[in-house]
Amino acid sequence: MIELNSLSKSFGNGRGIHQVSFTVPEGSIMGFVGHNGAGKTTTFKILTGLMDPDSGSATIDGIPVKPRNLKKLKQSVGYMPDIFGVYERMTVWQYLDFFGAAYRIPRKLRKERILKALDLTRSGDMVDYQVASLSRGMRQRVGLAKTILPDPKVLILDEPAGGLDPQARIEMREVVCELRDVGKTIILSSHILPDLGNMCDLVGIINKGNMEAFGKLDDITESLTDKKTYVIEVHKDDLGNAQQFLSNMGSIKDIQLREQQISFSCDKEEDLGAKVLAYLIENNIRVNSFKLQELELEEMFMQLAAK
Ligand SMILES: Nc1ncnc2c1ncn2[C@@H]1O[C@H](COP(=O)(O)OP(=O)(O)OP(=O)(O)O)[C@@H](O)[C@H]1O
Question: What is the mean pLDDT of the chain?
């Protein structure tokens, strides 16, 4: 649905993007992660026809991203930049109606589209508000409503949750998931890594213009770790014994005690999790919980960015 093949754009001194390739299937959400200046906006600008690449190609909904296809692309792609202008003196309805007209949506259809966009972005109760009076979270949702007015199949959202408080971020995340559920294909960038983990089907990590990783979050995590870390919680009277048993087992590393939790690691290939659990129970250790520790997106990102 969205396909990038070796897209490159150089601004000199190594700045820009280098051979960026990935494919986002129809109806999925891809989270595009990278530090400031990593190359996210440049990629978005190329995809939306605002900037020409030096080399490489891209297609969206089967349409090659080329200047001659800009009109067609505009119908298929909705782009919400990280900073967008709003007309402070208009009400939300006037603002959307204005853009509906600019998008040449016929008057009769326009009302229906505005109502649908307001509904999908949970902005219905703001129609009569002056744009100037909207909070940052409301503005982002109204911006999103404007972006989906022409009913594009693909949405490219640059930092839609940027500057939002935790509650507004949750709302934005729910709205984005709802848009995926009605069939949109979405690429969005974010610095708020945990948010991406919860909502994205795919994650792409870009660092200094190079794609460091792309795929399902679980697969990327798996490929990054060479060990598995487990966290167990045992009855407080069994802590010492449990620790002793673990130390007696060969191949167990990094045994650490934190309050009532003990964590330990083992080789990924060997994966001793089940064996350890059975061993502790056989030795009458009262195990309250036993779980595999997941690598946080933040940690994973730091590992890749440090490369
Ligand atoms: N028009 C331009 N002229 C010169 N350099 C540019 C231009 N646009 C981007 N760059 C440089 O290219 C690199 C990538 O920038 P880009 O804006 O794509 O990063 P980003 O990941 O979107 O960052 P941010 O999160 O800060 O928006 C940066 O080093 C930036 O300074």
Answer: 89
